[in-house]
Design a protein that fits this description.
Layout lengths: L1 H10 L4 H10 L7 H9 L10 H19 L1 H19 L3 H18 L6 H15 L7 H16 L10 H31 L1 E3 L2 H28 L1 H26 L5 E3 L1
Antiparallel strand pairs: 1-2
Helix pairs in contact: 1-2, 3-11, 4-5, 4-6, 5-6, 6-7, 7-8, 8-9, 9-10, 10-11
Length: 266
């Protein structure tokens, strides 16, 4: 792990290096106090936490590559193995552990031919985590990760049909992103307020502006690591591409954090 972190630190300066290490590998932030405060003020501190989206992208990528050659069933077993190795590699912190368990359970449900129910998988993963270590219940990251996922599952599901025009599709996309952000915020705000005595009023907007960059950062970050470990010079190609969404993310964080009255403090 330290070799991978060192590789990322060699390609990027702060805060970009910490963002990549956090989003892709689930590592702790080593940014300045100012940038950390800015992330909290705009409600984006959660973006540097390994989430279920990482696991989903990883498993789906494995299935797309292997299924044409090995078949669906064998590819599912290999995907489960890779997810387990990945979670062990990044560490058994609460968000990564929960995301890994949910990912494995979802893959297992495909093997046995059953429809996976996200809410059921969430609660089952929570139970398994507490069986493994009951002290997880005291972890703020566990509470926030569980609450955000619960809110998204309950309230952000949409059965609306894709609109015909580009404008309506774009507006539909914004609506879904806004509802997802609000869904996560609805259940995490009480926890954040309890521990930190502050609430970001601009969090739904900042999440909409940032959410679409997470997948490209994870994919390009993964490619940067894999290629960089093989040939550090070739890794610079992907790190250059990765620089673009990272710069955009930092720009949004720094710009929104300068707006007045965005944080409610007790």
């Amino acid at each position: 792990m330290e070799k991978v972190v060192g590789l990322i630190n060699g390609y990027f300066h702060e805060p970009y290096a910490s963002l990549v290490n956090g989003i892709v590998l689930g590592r702790d932030l080593f940014v300045t106090e100012l940038f950390l405060k800015q992330l909290k003020n705009v409600g984006l501190i959660h973006i540097v936490v390994l989430s279920g989206q990482n696991i989903t992208l990883l498993s789906q990528s494995v299935l797309r590559v292997l299924t044409p050659f090995l078949g669906r069933q064998i590819s599912l077993f290999i995907a489960i193995f890779i997810v387990c190795i990945f979670v062990w590699f990044v560490g058994l912190d609460a968000p990564a552990f929960r995301a890994g368990i949910m990912g494995v359970l979802a893959l297992l449900s495909q093997i046995v031919g059953r429809r996976s129910i996200p809410l059921y998988l969430l609660f089952l993963s929570g139970v398994l985590m507490l069986v493994y270590d009951v002290k997880y219940i005291e972890s703020i990251s566990f509470q926030l990760s569980f609450a955000a996922t619960f809110g998204i599952i309950i309230f952000s599901q949409s059965d609306s049909k894709l609109e015909s025009t580009r404008l309506r599709r774009f507006l539909s996309f914004l609506l879904v992103e806004f509802r997802t952000a609000l869904s996560a915020q609805a259940f995490t705000v009480p926890i954040i307020f309890w521990y930190f005595r502050e609430i970001s009023l601009i969090a739904p907007i900042s999440n909409i502006l940032i959410s679409f960059t997470i997948a490209p950062i994870m994919l390009l970050g993964g490619m940067t690591i894999v290629v960089g470990l093989i040939d550090s010079n070739l890794g610079y190609i992907f790190s250059f591409l990765l620089q673009l969404p990272l710069q955009y993310m930092v720009f949004i964080v720094e710009t929104l954090s300068k707006m007045p009255f965005i944080v409610l403090k007790l």
